[in-house]
């Protein structure tokens, strides 16, 4: 029987500049569904990217009533653990409901949102064929870059000066940097695809 497990967890405060900060959340997916290119993935997304996703899904599936996101509370305080956890729970419930609908699962934007770290603009460009890479290419490239455990990333950075240039990944065509993909996911070797 097919399953899709989604967890929204590990909220982190990120500094945008000296005046602005935001919180992003780790989205962990584990599935055996044929709809997914990768069976395990982990990305980080912020609230406004969820808002973008819901708008795009709604515009492509006008007859479906999409679940609501947690309301944008004008008194939201990112230093208040209750506010942050309430939003995290709402985002998880939103994704759980979205992932139960076969029509929504056919939308490439959803897969790029869940399985790459592409920006909304880059996801739109990819889906509309304006990039040199396909949706599947983007997901595979992100997965290959993101397979290392965080400690391996640190070891690789320390040894980078000693490594030859051929060992570097061909990530430049997707503009995915190591910083944009390190979400600290820990997957057991058994859960990785072979």
The CATH topology assignment is PX Domain
Report, as a whole number of angstroms, the end-to-end distance: 20 Å
Radius of gyration using CA atoms only: 17 Å
Give the averaged pLDDT, no decimals.
Answer: 80
Number of domains: 1
Overall spatial form: globular
Query: What portion of residues belong to β-strands?
Result: 15-25%
Tell me the strand order in the biggest sheet: 1-2-3
Identify the CATH homologous superfamily. Phox-like domain
Helix content: 25-40%
Secondary-structure element pattern, one letter each: EEEHHHHHHHH
What is the total tally of β strands? 3
Number of helices: 8
Question: What kind of sheet is the major sheet?
Answer: 3 strands, antiparallel
Structural class computed from helices and strand pairing: alpha+beta
Taking pLDDT < 50 over at least 5 consecutive residues as the criterion, the unreliable ranges are 148-156, 160-194
Structure description:
Its main location: cytoplasm. Residues 150-163 have a biased composition (Basic and acidic residues). Residues 164-182 have a biased composition (Low complexity). Keywords: Cytoplasm, Endosome, Lipid-binding, Membrane, Protein transport, Transport. With 194 residues, this protein is an alpha+beta fold. It has a single domain, classed as Phox-like domain (PX Domain, 2-Layer Sandwich), CATH 3.30.1520.10. Helices cover 39% and strands 15% of the residues. Strands 1-2-3 form a 3-stranded antiparallel beta sheet. A hairpin with an 8-residue loop joins strand 2 and strand 3. Helix 4 (108-115) packs across helix 5 and helix 4 (108-115) packs parallel to helix 6 (135-145). It is globular. Mean pLDDT is 80; it is low at 148-156 and 160-194.
